[in-house]
Amino acid sequence: MRVMLVEDDPLLGEGVVDVLRREQMVPEWLMEGRGVCEALEGSTFDALILDLGLPDIDGFEVLKQLREAQSQIPVLVLTARDDVVNRIRGLDSGADDYLIKPFDNGELLARLRALVRRSAGRASPQVSCGRLTLDPAAHEIRFDQTVVALGRREHDLLAYLMTHPGQVFTRDQLVEVLYGWDAEVESNVIEVHVHHLRRKFGSEVVTTVRNVGYRLGVAG
Fold first, then answer.
1. I want to staple 170 with a disulfide (CB 3.0 to 4.6 A). Which of 37, 130, 213, 218 is the partner?
2. What global pTM score does this model have?
């Protein structure tokens, strides 16, 4: 899961980034609101964590800009504004959830998983694709109900394709999803991960779309 965090408090921001990374998520952290819409254009994100008290523009304005631009990204407002008026305003302005600071890290992660699940139109916390089953909370992928040992990036790649069935992603998009903006990786890193997945699940688990990229195939 790739998550954008918009938070101006350095200590809190570092803490949230650390929590997300420990959960095998890929966070991108911005400390101001003006660049959010531009940063989201052309990039693949699963969710946005948005503070309201930003130094340049209010988080409500960021939320307004996103929804006026028809952005469908799930938004979790994370703020110290705990009064009912602001909570109602946030949800009515297009936020999908509202969490008050201070917060429990486990609750933050659970709310993120729920946001992404609902945005994909799923009710079940688990994702089933043929003989494959993904448990996002446990970070497990099962093949015919047997947990398969995977490296982190292999797991993340297959999990991402499973949660976006039918969609085709370019190599560059998948590099961003797995490693983030600033990562320096080998040019064939996605091909290597795909090769390893095919060895474990069969040659059709990830399909190559010629001159475009990759999508989830059929395992087994």
1. 213
2. 0.86
> Would you tell me the crossing angle of helices 152-163 and 189-201 to the nearest 10 degrees?
80
| Contact call for residues 125 and 115 (beta carbons, < 8 A) | no
**Could you name the CATH architecture of 127-216?**
Orthogonal Bundle (1.10)
**Phi, psi (5° rounding) for residue 169?**
-120, 140
Give the pLDDT confidence score for residue 44 in this predicted structure. 84
* Residue positions counted in the chain: 220
Check pLDDT > 80 for residue 183. no
Pick left, alpha or beta for residue 9 (phi over 0 → left; psi -120 to 50 → alpha; otherwise beta). beta
CATH code, residues 2-119: 3.40.50.2300
Any residues with CB less than 8 A from the CB of 175 and at least 6 apart, and which? Answer: 183, 185, 189, 190
Question: 36, 47, 38: which is closest to 1 by C-alpha?
Answer: 47
* CB neighbours of residue 129 within 10 Å: 18
Average pLDDT over residues 85-101: 96
Confirm if 208 and 168 have CB atoms less than 8 A apart.
no
- Give residue limits of the domains in the chain: 2-119, 127-216
**For residue 171, which amino acid is it?**
R
pLDDT in tens, 116-146: 999 888 888 899 998 999 999 899 999 999 9
**DSSP code of residue 218:** -
- The strand pairing partners of 135, in sequence order, are 140
Compute the distance between CA of residue 52 and CA of residue 57 in angstroms, rounded to an integer.
9
